[in-house]
Write a structure and sequence with these properties.
By secondary structure, this protein is of the alpha/beta class. It folds into two domains: 165 residues, Aspartate Aminotransferase, domain 1 (Alpha-Beta Complex); 235 residues, Type I PLP-dependent aspartate aminotransferase-like (Major domain) (Aspartate Aminotransferase, domain 2, 3-Layer(aba) Sandwich), CATH 3.40.640. Helix content is 39%, strand content 15%. The protein is built from 14 helices and 14 strands. The strands form three sheets. It has a seven-stranded mixed β-sheet, with helices on both faces. Strands 1-2-3-13 form a four-stranded mixed β-sheet. It is globular. The two termini are 25 Å apart. The model has no long low-confidence stretch (mean pLDDT 95).
Length: 418
């Protein structure tokens, strides 16, 4: 077996060069080439179908990044397209609401344990910011205790450029999985802490996905009650993927507020902040949220149809069953390869990370992901992957073969002796 040749990415690279003249960096945030393997990954995508994407140079990939999580069924789903077109024919942007908003909000209340009331928005950052505003308005305190990634707004952004220090100082980060660290932070900021916001399934960027240690989420719930702070679960990634009621349903721990997005509408831009009425009612008088486009109804139609399909066809059962098989086989491949790497995650979300075993770990990582992308498997060095419903058994078998071959090539190129 020999290392695969580089893919033809001529048009993608030409478009990227043009894009850099039109927009800062050419494109925003984690989509920039340095978050992949520069020169090896496509930058511009032409279309998607089922569990695949096709770039502007015609290269076809099995996509296991799934648009960073929104694609839970597959690309270009006919039932969802039909529902959206039917809504489009009625009109969809009035800034006043349509009946479909009530239908979707009631469905979310029926499904999600923490949901007694709902506010619909567009992005994950929208609703994490809504949730923290609700918490601050509810108890009149300012500081936010956070664990995990919660978006790009001033209170939670990791890169501090352009953020006033007075704002960033109001957010205190704590380590996932460590109850003592959380309680120490709560004690230190007891008179100022408004809320705890946490991803129930830990996945700090560029680190293995962490399932909660036994009793951890229960302990977080108890500490929130003990110190009288609002508990927020960030379920943007876990919602409608771990279960129809999110990680809170899966683990049996109910927060005061929670936020959902990504897989909720199979790619349409919609998100939800849900919570107990006691907290959410502060938005009636004490706090303000408004946007021209929050009431747009196309996304609501997509969300209702996505949820209908997920329930009707027991999609999550299938994703968990096939995803667990894929995760187990990937783990075995890595363990038997002799390459210093690890596999973490749960059935719907998996991650291959490279151990800092020696000074070559970065080169080893880049080489491995170069080999997988050259074989037409779209996974990312710094972010976990996903299983979607339209990934066929043949797709997953091909992905495992690509991973196995890439590991073999990596071992030859960067031998490791313990």
């Amino acid at each position: 077996m020999e290392s695969k040749p580089r893919l033809n990415l001529t048009r993608s690279m030409q478009m990227y060069e043009e894009a850099q003249k039109l927009s800062p960096g050419g494109l925003m945030g984690i989509r920039r080439p340095y978050n992949f393997v520069p020169g090896e990954y496509p930058i511009f995508i032409e279309r998607g179908y089922d569990g695949h994407i096709v770039d502007v140079d015609g290269n076809d990939y099995i996509d296991m990044l799934c648009a960073y999580g929104p694609i839970i069924l597959g690309y270009n789903e006919p039932e969802i397209n039909k529902a959206v077109i039917e809504q489009m024919e009625k009109g969809f942007c009035f800034s006043l609401v349509q009946e479909i908003q009530n239908k979707l909000q009631q469905k979310l209340i029926d499904l999600i344990p923490s949901a007694e009331m709902v506010v619909l928005a567009k992005t994950g950052s929208d609703v994490t910011s809504i949730a923290t505003r609700v918490a601050r308005a509810y108890n009149g305190k300012d500081k936010i205790l956070r664990s995990g990634y919660h978006g790009w707004h001033d209170w939670c952004v990791e890169v501090q450029g352009g953020v006033p220090k007075q704002v960033s100082d109001l957010t205190i980060e704590f380590e996932y999985g460590d109850l003592d660290a959380l309680e120490a932070a709560l004690k230190q900021h007891a008179n100022e802490a408004a809320c705890i916001i946490i991803t129930p399934l830990g996945h700090p960027n560029a680190h293995p996905i962490m399932s909660p240690p036994k009793g951890y989420l229960e302990g977080v719930r108890e500490l929130a009650d003990k110190y009288n702070v609002v508990l927020i679960f960030d379920e943007i990634r876990t919602g409608f993927r771990m279960s129809m009621g999110g990680a809170q349903q899966k683990y049996g721990v109910t927060p005061d507020l929670s936020v959902f997005g990504k897989a909720m509408a199979n790619g349409y831009a919609i998100s939800a902040c849900v919570g107990k009425a006691e907290f959410m009612k502060v938005l009636e008088k004490k706090a303000f949220v408004s946007s021209t486009f929050f009431p747009n109804s196309l996304e609501m139609a997509a969300a209702l149809k996505t949820i209908e399909i997920l329930e009707r066809d027991r999609i999550l059962d299938d994703i968990w069953t096939r995803g667990q098989d894929f995760l187990d086989k990937t783990t075995k491949l890595v363990q038997e390869s002799g390459v210093p790497a690890s596999v973490s995650g749960i059935a719907p979300m998996q991650y291959i990370t490279f151990d800092k075993a020696d000074e070559k770990y970065k080169e080893r990582r880049a080489f491995f992901f170069t080999q997988t992308i050259r074989r037409g498997l779209f996974i990312q060095p710094y972010h976990h992957g996903y299983i979607c419903y339209r990934h066929t058994d043949a797709d997953l078998k091909y992905a495992l073969n690509a991973i196995g071959e890439a590991l073999e090539e990596t071992k030859k190129a960067f031998p490791y002796n313990k």
